[in-house]
Amino acid sequence: MTNPYDKNKAISADEAAKIIPRAEFRVFGKDIISGVQEHMWKCKATLYAARIMPTEVYFLSRRTNEANVKVRDGLLDIKTKVGETPEGYEIFQPRGKFQFPVKQAELAEILKHLQVPLELTKDVYTLEEFIAMAKDNPELAVVRVEKKRYGFSVEGIICEYAQVWFNGAMVETACCESENYEGMKKATEALGIADLPNTNYLKAAKQVLGMN
Fold first, then answer.
1. Its domain of life (predicted)?
2. CA gap 125, 27 in Å, rounded
3. What's the chain's average pLDDT?
4. Domain count of the fold of the chain
5. Cβ neighbours, 10 Å, residue 28
6. What is the 3-state secondary structure of 182-193?
7. Domain assignment present for 154
8. Ramachandran quadrant class, 192 (left: phi over 0; alpha: psi -120 to 50; beta: rest)
9. Is residue 11 included in any domain, yes or no?
10. Of 4, 18, 19, 53, which sits most exposed with the smallest number of CB within 10 A?
11. Which residue has the higher pLDDT, 16 or 164?
């Protein structure tokens, strides 16, 4: 099974476009983890890994919920929503990873995904400069995200439950992801989360921050 916790690796936009994206069904709320733990033993889940993830910085835009722009391990990582399955599972396509400092053209591309225009006057920008620009723009928000994740699988479907802190506010989450949509449907039902709203990280962070 693919390790969902592999170290963040730099890939170009062209390489990212060749990656076959997995669909994801994710839920957030209170008491998510205890319910999933109870169900996972009944469905003979295979334990995989537990990890405290490096702190991430998410950039949220009031104008879209379809551009996942974050920094982890010093790399700016972009994924954009490219569709949904008939079951309503979301599909995000990687768009590449960028090492800071980023060139003006790269930052312009990032802002295009966030649908927020900013005047760019420098040839290159550091991470600190990008964060400062985002904080000064009312259409953007900068969120510190910490995650403690527990990975497992249900009949080959990648799953996890996790504690997530958005700027220090903790919520619980669980998800299933795969190119096998029928297998995902069975896994979400087996874990008792199928009837909960499908909510990605962007929407959950906005709910916590009151940014809706």
1. Bacteria
2. 35
3. 90
4. 1
5. 24
6. HHHHHHHHHCCC
7. yes
8. left
9. no
10. 18
11. 164
Q: If we measure between CA atoms, which residue out of 145, 139, 186 comes closest to residue 165? A: 145
Name every residue whose Cβ is closer than 8 Å to that of residue 24 and which is 6 or more positions away in sequence: 89, 90, 91, 92, 175, 176, 177, 200
Pair 159, 43: CB distance under 8 Å: no
> Three-state DSSP class for 150?
strand
Q: How many CA atoms lie within 13 A of 154 on its CB side?
A: 27
Model confidence pLDDT, tens digit, residues 185-202: 999 999 999 999 999 999
Residue 19 included in any domain:
no
In a domain, 7, yes or no: no
Residue carrying structure tokens 């994801």? 24
Q: Which two tokens stand for residue 56?
A: 């991430």
Query: Tokens 């527990």 — which residue?
Result: 150
State the residue range of the domain holding 174: 26-209
Whichever domain contains 178, its CATH number is 2.40.320
